[in-house]
Design brief:
- The structure is a single chain.
- The chain is α/β, with parallel strands linked by helices.
- The relative contact order is 0.17.
- The chain has two domains: about 1-15 and about 70-200, Rossmann fold (3-Layer(aba) Sandwich); about 15-65, no CATH class.
- Helix 5 (about 105-115) links the parallel strand 4 and strand 5.
- Helix 4 (about 75-80) runs parallel beside helix 8.
- Strands 5-4-1-6-7-8 form a six-stranded parallel sheet, sandwiched between helices. It has a two-stranded antiparallel sheet with strand order 2-3.
- It has helices at about 15-25, 35-45, 50-60, 75-80, 105-115, 135-145, 155, 190-200; strands spanning about 1-5, 10-15, 70, 85-90, 130, 150, 165-170, 185.
- The radius of gyration is 17 Å and the shape is globular.
- The structure holds magnesium ion.
- Magnesium ion (MG) binds near residues 8, 10 and 151.
Length: about 200
């Protein structure tokens, strides 16, 4: 079994981090929901697009270790590893942000994985694939021969170039896509782990 997993918003949860970064800088009211999208929408409505750009550079860069793995993700990876699964992280991530300070986003992602005991502890460093372009991410998923790929974006899973042999699982922790019928949809990593256990023991 070869399992591929997206990184941003599938393994790494940024909701608390972006709320904290914005709140510490006095950019949002404290009562704003602890949700990355809510922070982004608030700053855009307030005409603070530049602040949002700066926060993203920090959140995906030097401050990334303050983001958290989603609950249950580390346990699922541990189970899968012990079950003999070959796990790869395949992420679409530019080396530096599109705008703002040139933080090294690849080094930051690897620091997050080390800090939270994911890689190299559970996933060797050479199985962490940070691809600067979306097309390279699709290609890598195919080259690796993933049996299952997990991602938080239905539009990515629905890409015409997505390798057809791969079973696609949608991670939807905020319940944004209740109508999605094309892919199995999961609202938690606990749910993913249960289905994964059934899959490998079938
Ligand atoms: Mg993602």
């Amino acid at each position: 079994m070869i399992l591929g997993i997206d990184f941003d918003n599938t393994i790494a949860c940024y909701d608390g981090l972006f709320h904290a970064l914005a709140s510490e800088r006095g950019l949002i009211p404290d009562e704003l929901p602890t949700d990355k999208t809510a922070v982004r929408d608030y700053l855009r409505r307030a005409g603070k697009e530049d602040d949002w750009t700066e926060l993203q550079g920090l959140g995906y860069g030097p401050e990334i270790t303050r983001a958290s793995p989603f609950p249950g993700v580390v346990e699922t990876l541990r189970y899968a590893t012990e079950a003999g699964t070959e796990i790869h992280i395949v992420s679409h991530k530019t080396r530096t942000p599109y705008r703002g300070e040139p933080h090294d986003l690849h080094a930051a992602a690897r620091r997050f994985l080390g800090h939270h005991g994911i890689s190299p502890a559970l996933i060797p460093a050479d199985r962490v694939h940070l691809q600067p372009e979306k097309e390279m991410k699709l290609q890598r998923i195919g080259e690796l021969g993933c049996d299952i790929f997990i991602d938080d974006l239905p539009e990515f899973l629905a890409e015409p170039a997505f390798p057809h042999s791969v079973t696609r699982w949608l991670f939807d922790p905020a319940g944004r896509y209740p109508e999605e019928k094309r892919f199995a949809r999961f609202i938690s990593w606990e749910q993913i782990e249960r289905t994964f256990r059934d899959t490998v023991s079938a």
